[in-house]
From TrEMBL:
This is LAQU0S02e11166g1_1. SMART domains: Aamy (SM00642). GO terms for molecular function: alpha-amylase activity; glucan 1,4-alpha-maltotriohydrolase activity; oligo-1,6-glucosidase activity; sucrose alpha-glucosidase activity. Belongs to the glycosyl hydrolase 13 family. It comes from the Eukaryota. Keywords: Glycosidase, Hydrolase, Maltose metabolism. InterPro entries: GH, GH13_cat_dom, Glyco_hydro_b, O16G_dom_2. GO terms for biological process: maltose catabolic process; sucrose catabolic process.
Length: 585
């Protein structure tokens, strides 16, 4: 972590192509739309974009089901549009990171169609096929093991044509690759990554990066929820026996493919859960597997243990520890970390961790920005987060489109009924946690229908998913650009402060909590790499005034950044949702 790299100090802005900007009025965002908005991203002050999957796909899981890695989905544009986006982004100093989705492809991919064509197909073993364990009395095939899909139900899909099951840890149309075969791995690296490296991308966000290596024999998972027919596969698929070998091999492929600029290429793996030793191994510079990873400890706070939408209350202390799990492991090692609160799988952070009422929305969104710019690691901002966007309020279940929500809903309906207590509880969970809260079209203005998401309007065409009505209440780019006190301008200032004091804010080490048990205050200290500077952060996660301590009474605390007037920074009171950063001298 001692070596400076552009990708360590970068702010990466995540773009959901379906919902950023629709340049041709078909109701879907597109790549020319992203190119058109590069000036906006420059204005915000980000250094790179990570663009979610834009490849050809039947869209069962919003492009995470890829049918052709080397082709842009026609609704998003053409390959030429993508090459132009890359070169125009580079021309204004924005690097481009793309999604690498390689645990599975789409069941419409030519490789899978060939695999499925017969038991003797040359590509049969490219996917994970197993015969039924047996048949029920009424003739239904029984899956080979008890693993559940991350989207609910069995992880096995029956294929009528060849009378076998294939493994799919996600949706029915997302067959898992058989990573045991080197010819499969080589084909994946070449097509999904090599093609885009050749066209100038600067790195990859590696989807489900911990799931490729399954335990041999695919044994039943431990029964953790006896009320369910299917069990979380856990360690049988997560961080499995050959996972580090695979990542080393893949990174070696990237290095070879980008000779001359290999050190400029970075990767961020979506790992989720992992023990300390594994976190270090994945991200160590010396091990050369991935540059950094996403941990889920803080975004999974309060999720149900057996069923993610059965939300539980959680304490600020639990959340603080979850946040710290993203970077503490890397302290004074050759590993690197990430900072994020939102992405396309998460609801809006102001709603979840701040207070999205009109009274506190702006100030609590700014508080979250202060926290994030003060943490060590590569910073990720998800589209709309810079506006303080909130969850979609008042939606009915029918408005949500996510395959994860639909699959779970169908299971609950079948098991308990549409009018059951379980369904009501599910609806509550969805209102807080659905992935669709972050997937609605970006609000560009309040003066046009659908927030100006579409540049031109074709009659009868609506955006692919409902709008978040909050664009009428000032949450849109135009109104926020015109208001110097907006969340947008605060983020802009915060990103500048982060760069200005990068030695402590970006690269700082020796993080320590102050009063970890405090239920309302999130306070910590950390040092610059050379130990010369000490930062103290004091953040009030409540809507009431709170007194706070100075951890060292002999030192002087100089406030240099905050979301209220710093004039009264000497006071030991934090106002509702107030945060302040100090240098300790
Ligand atoms: O997510 C994988 C993942 O680890 C899950 O936790 C996911 O966040 C959860 O099921 C949400 O309900 C990645 C992508 O980020 C996600 O969008 C895709 O659906 C998934 O992989 C399959 O490719």
């Amino acid at each position: 972590s001692a070596i400076d790299k552009w990708w360590k100090e970068a702010t990466v802005y995540q773009i959901y192509p379906a919902s950023f900007y629709d340049s041709n009025g078909d109701g879907w965002g597109d790549l020319p739309g992203i190119t058109a908005k590069l000036p906006y991203l420059k204005q915000l002050g980000v250094d790179a974009v990570w663009i979610c999957p834009f490849y050809d796909s039947p869209q069962q899981d919003m492009g995470y089901d890829i049918s052709d890695y080397e082709k842009v989905w026609p609704r998003y544009g053409t390959n030429e549009d993508c090459f132009r986006l890359i070169s125009e982004a580079h021309a204004v100093g924005i690097r481009v990171v793309v999604d690498l989705v390689i645990n599975h492809c789409s069941s419409e991919h030519a490789w899978f169609r060939e695999s499925r064509s017969s038991k003797t197909s040359a590509k049969r073993d490219w996917f994970i096929w197993r015969p039924a364990k047996g048949f029920t009395a009424d003739g239904k095939p029984i899956p080979p093991n008890n693993w559940s899909s991350f989207f609910g139900g069995s992880a096995w899909e029956w294929d009528e044509h060849t009378q076998e099951f294939y493994l799919r840890l996600f949706a029915s149309g997302q067959p898992d690759f058989n990573w045991e075969l080197s010819e499969v791995r080589e084909a994946i690296y070449e097509s999904a990554a090599g093609f885009w490296l050749d066209h100038g991308v600067d790195g990859f966000r590696i989807d489900t990066a911990g799931l490729y290596s399954k335990i041999e024999g695919l044994p039943d998972a431990e029964v953790r929820d006896a009320t369910n027919d299917h069990q979380h596969p856990g360690h049988n698929t997560q961080n499995g026996p050959r996972i580090h070998e695979f990542h080393k091999e893949m990174r070696a492929f990237f290095d070879k493919r980008t000779a001359g600029r290999a050190d400029e290429i970075f990767t961020v793996g979506e790992v989720g859960k992992c023990d300390m030793a594994g976190l270090l191994q994945y991200t160590s510079e010396q091990e050369r597997e991935m540059s950094q990873l996403f941990n889920f400890a803080h975004t999974e706070c309060g999720l149900g243990t057996h069923f993610r939408y059965h939300v539980q209350p959680f304490t600020l202390k639990q959340w603080k520890l979850g946040i710290a799990a993203s970077f503490l492991f890397a302290n004074r090692t050759d590993s690197w970390s990430t900072v994020y609160l939102e992405n396309h799988d998460q609801p809006r952070s102001v709603t979840r961790f701040g207070d999205d009422s009109p009274e506190w929305r702006q100030v609590s969104a700014k508080l979250l920005a202060i926290l994030e710019v003060a943490l060590t690691g590569t910073l990720y901002v998800y589209q709309g987060q810079e506006l303080g966007q909130i969850n979609n309020h008042g939606w009915t279940l029918d408005q949500y489109q996510d395959v994860d929500m639909i699959t779970h809903r169908n299971i609950i309906a079948k098991r308990y009924g549409e009018d059951s207590v379980e369904m009501a509880k599910f609806a509550q969970g969805i209102a807080l946690l659905s992935r669709d809260h972050s997937r609605t079209p970006f609000p560009w203005t309040s003066r046009e229908p659908d927030a100006g998401f579409s540049a031109v309007r074709q009659s009868g065409v609506k955006p692919w998913i409902s709008m978040n009505d909050s664009f009428r209440d000032g949450i849109n780019a135009e109104d926020e650009l015109n208001d110097p006190n907006s969340v947008f301008h605060f983020w802009r200032a915060a990103l500048r402060i982060r760069k200005q004091h990068k030695d402590v804010l970006v690269y700082g080490q020796d993080f320590e909590f102050v009063d970890l048990n405090n239920p309302d205050l999130f306070m910590f200290t950390k040092k610059s790499r050379d130990g010369a500077k000490t930062l103290f952060a004091a953040l009030n996660f409540s809507s009431e005034d709170r007194e706070f301590p100075h951890p060292n009474e002999d030192a002087t605390y100089k406030a240099f950044f905050g979301n209220y007037d710093l004039g009264s920074a000497e006071e030991r009171i934090l106002r509702p949702w107030e945060g302040r950063l100090f240098f300790v001298e």
